Fold:
Amino acid sequence: MDLQAVDAEEDLVGVVISKLEPHRGGPMRGYIAMLAVREGYRGVGVATRLVRMAVDAMSKRDADEVVSSHDRTTFEAESIRW
Structure:
């Protein structure tokens, strides 16, 4: 599943890519695979909103948990509040 954020001119400013599947035959695990926000739109809540929307969408599809993997050199995960 992908969710996108656009500005007033309908230009893409952010995207989150996620998936939901059974984890090792057990709980339904949601996974945030990628999150990107255009530089000029960082720090204003775009990433937080995209992640919340992805988590909410997976929760509605009965996710038992949601995880993410990130590279701190390109992603400041500490600033995102789920």
In short: The mean pLDDT is 86. The two ends are 18 Å apart (CA to CA). The longest helix spans residues 46-60. The domain at 2-75 is CATH 3.40.630.30 (Aminopeptidase).
